[in-house]
Write a structure and sequence with these properties.
This protein is of the alpha+beta class and about 300 residues long. It contains eleven helices and seven strands.
């Protein structure tokens, strides 16, 4: 059972999203199975959100969406006294979300897991290293959200192939690469802004870091993750919170050519929604117009509904 209830209007919008994706994927000779989404509208206090979905359990390399999970885990570790607050950690948590910095993310992962990725280790040391790298997986497993089934959060973020400990760790990881699903991402976004499973302190910290400003001078820069993503299809005056990610060729077909996004939006008319979209395929990953077109469909559909 999902954490949301199906909704007729959202199902209608979901059908429009599906049709748009099917046409785009056919035109580019990309398998339609390499597309999935979850569309939600939050309910009032204590109520269940309403939603629609296509392939919500599709397990995919998550690109930079995984950084929201690392941010939540880091904030929880700070609250529990497992991490000590300091300026470099604060800077890294900000930059891994705002600019999607892999270097910042990997610094946070080192602190959370007590590991570093460098020269080779003995077999026993490598086994201990791998066990420590499971720290974030263990944190989210304790939440017992069924929507997190199949995810993996034990790898650093890389711009190409891995070497040394990172290569060996990936080869030995039961979960392989980091992995998420559209429903896992949607559940975390919903809990961040409307749930009760995360602490109030965590939600107060994580939410503002996800904010995007459509009028920012950085909005046209790719690193800001508005242009070319769902937020790029929002009407003027929309409030935006989002985290997106894209890979091009990495030399590893398990991670090549993804473009994903997770968006919370409040439209000028007050309608709020959460939309997570996962895609795979070179022609889609290189298409700066595809995700904005889906965002526009969702926003228009909610305005009409």
């Amino acid at each position: 059972m999902s954490f949301f209830d199906e909704d007729e209007n959202l199902q209608r919008i979901g059908a429009l999203l599906t049709a748009k994706a099917a046409a785009a994927f056919r035109e580019r000779s990309v398998p339609e199975e390499q597309f999935g989404f979850v569309l939600l509208q939050p309910a009032g206090p204590g109520g269940r959100p309403r939603g629609a979905a296509l392939r919500p359990d599709w397990r995919s390399y998550p690109c930079s969406l995984v950084k929201v999970f690392f941010l939540v885990a880091a904030q929880a570790a700070l609250e529990a006294g497992q991490l000590t607050e300091h300026e470099e950690l604060e800077r890294a948590m900000r930059d891994m979300i705002l600019w999607s910095s892999n270097s910042a993310t990997n610094y946070v992962i080192d602190l959370l897991s007590g590991t570093t990725g460098d020269t080779l280790l003995s077999a026993a040391e490598m086994a201990a290293w791998g066990e420590r790298r499971e720290a974030v997986n263990r944190f989210f497993a304790r939440l017992e959200w069924p929507e997190l089934a199949g995810i993996n959060l034990n790898q650093k973020l890389m711009d190409d192939l891995r070497y040394g400990r990172e290569k060996i760790g990936l080869d030995r990881s039961p979960g392989g690469h980091n992995a998420l699903t559209p429903i896992a991402m949607a559940r975390l976004m919903h809990e961040t802004f409307h749930g009760s499973a995360l602490s109030e302190t965590t939600r107060r910290t994580v939410g503002p870091l996800l904010a995007r400003d459509l009028t920012s001078p950085f909005a046209k820069r790719g690193a800001y993750q508005v242009s070319g993503y769902l937020a790029g299809g929002m009407p003027d005056g929309t409030q935006i919170w989002s985290k997106a990610g894209r890979t091009r060729w990495l030399g590893d077909e398990r991670a090549d050519f993804r473009r994903h996004d997770a968006l919370r939006a409040i439209l000028p008319g007050g309608q709020e929604f959460i939309l997570t979209v996962f895609t795979q395929g070179e022609a889609i990953a290189e298409d700066d117009g595809f995700l904005p077109s889906l965002g526009e469909i969702a926003a228009s559909g909610l305005n009409e509904g």
